[in-house]
Write a structure and sequence with these properties.
There is one protein chain. It is built from 10 helices and no strands. The relative contact order is 0.13. The protein is globular and about 70 Å long. Helix 1 runs parallel beside helix 7, helix 3 packs antiparallel against helix 4 and helix 7 crosses helix 10. The protein starts with 39 loop residues before the first helix and ends in an 11-residue tail after the last helix. Helix content is 55%, strand content 0%. The chain is mainly alpha-helical.
């Protein structure tokens, strides 16, 4: 029995367990009578890394076959991700809207249900700037809800810094660790990063930055920027609601 998952490389051998085995199991063409067992978690981890390198999110939205295709030797990952989102735009919007509404998100913001609904509708229609502009204030609202006392004046920087600390402490119970690790870098290092000049904004590339967008240093009103913003908002909402479920008591007095 010979198994060649991609039919693209000659016979090679590897020993050990992923992620330490080289070559990767899917790069092997086994000898007759030998099968290679490929862990789907390993595929997702590798594919998420490929997407992260070119600034695209959403590994949990993608089928296993598509994830495997991202690992092909000749894969143009950036072009493939762009095309996938173009083709799957409506289903991505519907999935993220449905997913987020299952978290109990009304606890995080007074306007989140309407904002998320309008943002996903705008995304499905190709109105990407509207998606980004609708969600940016919600991200800051989540920060204030979770870490500030609304009866006391608090700077936005303090609110955002507090939210970042909470995110770092959130246990990954019931979460997708691969998606979480893939998206967290975008949120912690780029979405919330300080950005004061056009040069700062350019350093972030296609990944949305709240300062850059709100202060007109850059705009992310395109498919990639809106996709990242939607996925980042989904993860923030999930983390915030998970903390509330686990008993976090925000200074704002919101009930879990």
């Amino acid at each position: 029995m010979t198994i060649d998952w991609l039919g693209r490389r000659g016979p090679r051998k590897g020993t050990g367990m992923w992620p330490f085995v080289l070559p990767r199991p899917w790069d092997l063409t086994p000898e007759p009578g030998i099968a290679v067992v490929i862990d789907p978690v390993a595929i997702s981890q590798e594919a998420a890394g490929e997407l992260r390198r070119v600034g695209w999110p959403g590994i949990s939205l993608m089928s296993r076959d598509f994830q495997m295709s991202l690992l092909e030797e000749s894969a143009d990952v950036a072009a493939m991700a762009q095309r996938w989102y173009e083709e799957q735009r409506a289903s991505v919007a519907a999935e993220l809207n449905q997913r987020a509404n299952g978290y109990g998100i009304t606890r995080t913001s007074k306007s989140i249900i309407v904002a998320l609904g309008e943002a996903t509708a705008a995304y499905a229609a190709g109105n990407y700037l509207s998606t980004v502009r609708l969600l940016m204030p919600e991200v800051e609202g989540i920060a204030r809800t979770m870490v500030t006392d609304r009866s006391v004046r608090t700077s936005q920087k303090a609110a955002v810094d507090g939210l970042k600390e909470l995110l770092r402490e959130t246990p990954l119970i019931k979460e997708d660790p691969i998606e979480t690790m893939s998206m967290y870098e975008f949120i912690d290092d780029q979405l919330f990063a300080a950005c004061h000049t056009e040069a700062d904004a350019q350093a972030f590339g296609a990944v949305p930055n709240r300062h850059a967008e709100l202060h007109a240093l850059e705009s992310y009103g395109n498919l990639q920027g809106a996709s990242l913003m939607l996925c980042a908002t989904d993860l923030l909402l999930r983390f915030a609601c998970r903390l509330l479920d686990l008993g976090h008591q925000p200074p704002s007095g919101i009930r879990a």
